[in-house]
UniProtKB/TrEMBL annotation:
Keywords: Endonuclease, Hydrolase, Nuclease. It comes from Plakobranchus ocellatus. GO terms for molecular function: endonuclease activity. It comes from the Eukaryota. This is Endonuclease-reverse transcriptase.
Length: 133
């Protein structure tokens, strides 16, 4: 998870991370791949929920809040508001768009404004972690 603060997590990446997490759980619980157990039963046996994605998103949100409060060059790079022409084709997903979806903030501008108030930002993160992904 080193450097996960700067990852953009698409649906495909999220599915891969969830599959890897399930593989880890099955290995730790010593459940054979030939055993006919669903992922839900494995999660019940482990007495846990899916943690990997929520931990990554929490780290991203805290890092994003830190960067946005500094208001330096990193802010422009993180939000993707740089001058110049956009490349052709489908545009890449930005970190702020993924965080805004996870935080259920609506638009990315609402999330950016929420970072100014540290207490409000922390409560938004805590609520999103409670609700899960």
């Amino acid at each position: 998870m080193y450097g996960c603060e700067a990852w953009t997590i698409s649906e495909q990446t999220q599915k891969k991370l969830e599959a890897t997490e399930m593989w880890f759980l099955r290995r730790m619980l010593r459940i054979s791949w030939t055993a006919k157990k669903t992922n839900d039963t494995v999660l019940e046996e482990a007495h846990t929920t899916r943690l990997l994605i929520s931990k990554i998103r929490k780290r991203q949100a805290t890092f994003f809040g830190h960067v946005m409060r500094r208001e330096k060059l990193e802010t422009l790079v993180t939000t993707g508001m740089l001058e110049g022409k956009r490349s052709r084709g489908k545009q890449r997903e930005k970190l702020i768009e993924g965080l805004a979806d996870w935080l259920k903030a609506g638009k990315s501008l609402e999330a950016i404004e929420a970072t100014k108030d540290r207490k409000k930002w922390r409560t938004m993160i805590a609520n999103a972690v409670k609700q899960g992904t």
